[in-house]
Amino acid sequence: xxxxxxxxxxxxxxxxxSTILPVFAGTAQKxxxxxxxxxxxxxxxxxxxxxxxxxxxxxPDFVAKWKRVVILETRAGNPKNIKNWTDLTKPDVKIIxxxxxxxxxxxxxxxxxxxxxxKNGGNDTQAxxxxxxxxxNVVVLPKDAREASxxxxxxxxxDVLINYENEVILAAQQGKTDTSYIIPPVNISIDAPVAVVDxxxxxxxxxxxxxxFVKFLFTPEAQREFxxxxxxxxxxxVSKEVKNKFPYIARLYTVADLGGWSGVQKKFFADGAIFDKxxxxxx
Length: 283
Fold this sequence. Notes:
Layout: H1 5-13, E1 19-21, H2 26-36, H3 40-47, H4 52-55, E2 66-68, E3 70-74, E4 95-96, H5 104-118, H6 124-136, E5 138-140, H7 145-153, E6 160-164, H8 165-173, E7 180-182, E8 186-188, E9 190-191, E10 194-196, H9 198-204, H10 207-217, H11 220-228, E11 232-233, H12 236-241, E12 251-253, H13 260-269, H14 274-282
């Protein structure tokens, strides 16, 4: 396998909790489908629970292999003068984001919007009002991030695409976009833990190579590869090397700060929860 293989795999899967090794085909695909249905979190925690103690046998620090944040991608030159989350409520701004009921990636977008209020001195009532106003400006709500990107890039729809930082960096590298983007100073850290699944490595007899690969992901060499395609490294040395590429985030929070995935799913994305109420208000 070539060095770019694994970063490309992470870009393609869109998994929002963990990367499961070494089952790149069956289980990984099945897990992604569960994520899109909104049930991935509960099923993953039951089937593939990974404790901090068990994980620490492989990796001393229970941390993500890389991080990324949500950005606001605009047309070249930022003609709508988008500077922060609050600008998304301007009456003349047309927004594209995927549907968080069907897209794991869009859940992060939603949580970034919510957290921009509650992690900046606001409360749930204010957050609900803000995010309701934002979704009134959403003109395209595709089923997944790929369709959202196609609507923005290929079809020229919308003024703003709520996107991941790594996605726009990679698109620019590939010559697919000449857009501008803004990194809001209050943002969510999209962490990507990695785990070796005991059941699978024992079945295939490849525990040694799987654990070695997990360790490799945290080496400076691997971290530099992640950084090249837009992922924020977790290695302190590499982070310093690429600090000019990844602007500092003044206030960075995690999904745990919003109640963890089980709480988030129930509060926002379950049937009849907050997102469904927002959708009813848009109709």
